[in-house]
Amino acid sequence: MSEVPSPRLRISDQDRESALTALGEHMSAGRIDIDEFGERSARITAAKTRGDLAEVFADLPEPHPRYDTPGTAVSEPEKPASPWAGISPAQRVMGALLPILFIATIVLIVTTDLTWWFILVPIGISAVGESIWGKGWENSHKKLGKQRRRELDG
User: Which of 24, 58, 101, 111 could form a disulfide with 122 if both were Cys (CB 3.0 to 4.6 A apart)?
Assistant: First the structure.
């Protein structure tokens, strides 16, 4: 025989959502009007225990809120995959150095007598990197940039 949980047992946000859904069904069925729905939903939002919710539904037939089962263990949330997954250390280094190389090349072209053809050096390095490391290479420096922006924003 299962034991009925105590009305003093604390409720979760999911229990409150279930109660609000059930209350909405009672309003749709015409058992309560919009004003009473507002009053009762405010009480549901402020409810702390199962007894508080039971009072809101005392004069209403089913549906009533469905409660979480007591004693269920809450698992630790899954950690997101590392943004570095799938990027080798060599790709990380080249992905970080490539934008710097482009900027340095442009500065050299503008400030010295180097011809504009010198810009083919970083472009060639990009092409070689893609042929060595595959298609993932072309996005590795973009992934690094996005990761840095997330770290700065966070």
Answer: 101
